[in-house]
Design brief:
Elements lengths: L1 E5 L14 H4 L7 E8 L5 E10 L8 E9 L2 H17 L4 E6 L4 H9 L3 E6 L2 E5 L17 E3 L5 H13 L23 E5 L2 E11 L3 E9 L4 H19 L5 E5 L3 H10 L7 E8 L3
Parallel strand pairs: 4-5, 11-12
Antiparallel strand pairs: 1-2, 2-3, 3-4, 5-13, 6-13, 7-12, 8-9, 9-10, 10-11
Length: about 280
Amino acid sequence: MYVISDIKKDDLQSLESILEKEISDKVGKKNHYAIKAVNEDGDRVEAVIVFRIRNLENSMDTESEIICFSAVNKTGAYELLNKYTARIRELHVVRSLFEFNTLSDISKDVLEQNGFVIEKREATNIIIRIGNIPEHIFSAIRLPKYLHPVEEIDEFSLKQGIVSCLFGGAEPTEDDPALLDPDTYDKHISCCINMDGKLRGLLLVRPVSSGLLIPEFIFATSIDKERFMKAMFVHFIRESVRKYPGDTRVMINRHNDTVRKTSHILFPRAKGAEVYAGIREEGG
């Protein structure tokens, strides 16, 4: 018999050996959920799952991205996944998916026996160490005059631009930035395409405590979107190299074709790590 309950902020200190800092920081954020299975005596966490619901505005394509799944006991993990399945059904999720760098035999067995198809493949994310990027590669690149650091626009214009991009089809890689504190972004390395007073593109970058720079909102519109995207990435990478120490890392989530093409142009040899990728179609 296991006690299945939501993970609260107050639980995080006791889960430090299970949840990495970048994952525990997501607990309590919008559209993020975390559940644990504790043994009957209440002295051992047997399994945890942290997941994020995406595309809530589209009931035909609502996904659950599992950010973390850890199990040390199969029975507890089964009960945890039963609770997870019930929760995502309430949210009308049509598929569950994940990418993990490592996956224990217990966790893999439990996930597969619960309907997940798992394979090894290249990760969607690529991570590049700033110290490995020579600044001279930017010397021959001229950025357009309509590209500006976000620090040059006021907060109201930024939020208005985010909303315009969202209506234009932008897909944030994390939470909706319009609902986040603008101060969580580095406004110098973040940038925008501002033409005739209208934002045609936006790239917002959040530094995290582990020394990682994460672009969380990447969008460009018009027939020139690939050119805009490339220009914004060049600004972001160049200014990151100039501002941050060499051991800082940049993570790029190649979540759509435009980002994939742009990252390949800038980093043609960069490869994502080999990961365990899993997917399960849900009832919706």
